[in-house]
C-alpha cells in the first residue's frame, strides 16, 4: 500500500481492527465505536496517550509476548447494544452499564491538544474514565 501511495502520490484509508497494521502503515488514526468517532490523533500520539476509555481498552487488549503461555487476554467488558436499543448519548457508557452524566445528549467532539480530538463524555474521558477501561 505504501509503495502505491508514493508511486501514485495519493493517500489511502485503511479500515481495520488490527492496531499493528495501523501502527506500521498510518500517520493518523480515527477510533470508532458503534458508528461514532470517539478519538482522532496522530498514530504516535494515540498510542502514547490514549484518552477515550474505548481506545485504552483496545490498546490494553493487544496480546503481550511477555505474558506466560495460556494467559487470559484482556477484554473490554459488556456488549455492543443492538441498533434498536442504541443510546442517543454516550454509546460506550451504555456498553459499560454506566449512566452517562450527559443523559441522552451526545458528547461533544473536542480538540484537547493540537491534533488530538476526543468524544468528551465525562465518564469515558477524564478522571472517572481510568476506572472502566
List keywords for this structure.
single chain; alpha+beta; four-stranded antiparallel β-sheet; 5 helices; 17% strand; globular
List the helices and strands and how they pair.
Blueprint: H1 2-8, H2 19-25, E1 28-33, E2 36-42, H3 43-48, H4 53-60, H5 91-96, E3 109-113, E4 116-119
Antiparallel strand pairs: 1-2, 2-4, 3-4
Question: Can you walk through the features of this model?
Answer:
By secondary structure, the protein is α+β, with helices and mostly antiparallel strands. It has one domain (2-75, 109-131). It is globular, with a radius of gyration of 16 Å. Strands 1-2-4-3 form a four-stranded antiparallel β-sheet. 26% of the residues lie in helices and 17% in strands.
